[in-house]
Amino acid sequence: MRKYLWIGTAGWSGCSDWARGIGNRTWVAGPIMPDGGFGLELGMAPIELTNDTIRVVIDPSNGCRIDALELPNPDGQWQPVLRSGADGVGSFLMVPWTNRIKGAKFGFDNQTHRLRPNHPDGSAIHGVGRDHGWMIGDRSPYTARCVFDSRLVERVNFPFAFGAVFRIEIGDGCVEIDLELTNLGDSPMPGGVGHHPYFLRSLWDQGDELRVKAGVGGRYPCEDQIPVGPMVDDEVCKGLRAGGAIGDPGLDDVFGGFDGRAVLEWDKSGVRCVMECCDVFGHLVMYTPGDDTAPLPWVCVEPVSMVNDGFNRMTDRADTGVRILEPGETLKSSMTLRFERI
Fold this sequence. Notes:
The protein is mostly beta strands. The protein has a single domain (about 15-340), classed as Beta-galactosidase, Chain A, domain 5, CATH 2.70.98. It is built from 3 helices and 26 strands. The strands form 7 sheets. The protein has an 8-stranded antiparallel sheet with strand order 10-11-12-13-26-22-21-16. The longest helix is centred in the first third of the chain and has 9 residues, at about 15-25. The two termini are about 25 Å apart.
């Protein structure tokens, strides 16, 4: 699927040495610019990637979020698979941590680090990548790559210097997403990455009964979404492994032992989505909210590298999934969403 050109770095002006260096170590897709390189541009309009089978729109100016992911319906019209438009963002990146940090503080290397809380419960949630604009490194009609360097942004809500690279490519009914996190400081740092997609409960047939199947090993007991004990294999886990209708279980839970594969099926529309993740994503968050009368029209199936509040659980000798990155070290992750007609 991937067809690469070697792209030089002559056009990388006004950016950090680390961002320039991305071009020196990576094969990327896209046309060569007139100056023999390609530029990093900030504040660009959303990027649309389209072929006959799939359409994706990302917004580098707003955290490289996915604003649209669509498939053609039986009438040939584009149909959203993810939440979009006035209903909210379709998916966003979580970097350099995922989910909550309790009390917006954590201890690491004999120091206490305090963050600015950004959630009503007083936690710091979902990292900082979604809060800032990313620079466009390269793009073509079918792929795009964007870069974030925390050293170029004032008041980043994280005490360690880091860089992130996001790459997305569409193929025949599929989307490939790579997300990298690099320690740009001179001392070790904890880190994690993840994705937060909002899948619609129904596609072009409102009679859809969304089914979700995921290979998970256990669910963490939580209080206010913060784990309070080791994961336990319970009936909810068994239900996810069996792949029944998601219904309205009211989940906002994190699971461990994720085998990297989740399958979503919209029965009446006749569509299956197979999510395949690299082994970095050892945890999965399921979020199925509702109001007083009915479930909301979307559910979140979130592959993440670390457990909620993982930075504060590293002393528990638990498999938190938190990576300790040495200076210059990179955590690489990949996820593919493959759509099939059933």
